[in-house]
Amino acid sequence: MRFTLVMSYSEVGGAALSAEEMEAGRQAFDAYGKALHEAGVLIAAEVFTPVASSTTIRGGEVVDSQDASAEQLSGIFIVDVADEAAAVVWAKRCPAAEFGTMVVRQSAVSFVDGGWSA
After folding, report:
1. Is the residue at 63 inside a domain?
2. Residue 10's CATH number
3. Which of 34, 49, 103, 118 makes the best surface tag, with the fewest CB within 10 Å?
4. Contacts of 107 (CB under 8 A, 6+ apart)
5. N-term to C-term CA, the chain
6. Separation CA 15–CA 35 (nearest Å)
7. pLDDT per residue over 69-106, tens digit each?
């Protein structure tokens, strides 16, 4: 079963980190990604650039991408695991779970090998 582990955390909080704290975070995310890969469950992983560098389209029009929320959508991990309980275990292991929010969403359909499948 495919699940997307959605990370949200404060961009402002991240900007306040020291170089040493940023490096420790990079190492923690590297170890997490490698653990997912070695377990054979990782489909894809993306960490996003800041909201200010994004483009938002609403109603067919480009609009301001600023986000004043306490947390911003920060990245995703797509995993293929046995069930939701396994996905939750992986989400809780994500470094972002310590300082942000993790949401676990099951895929309803996926586009794989040129077509949609349930």
Report:
1. no
2. 3.30.70.1060
3. 118
4. 1, 2, 3, 4, 78
5. 10
6. 27
7. 889 999 999 999 999 999 999 999 999 999 999 999 99
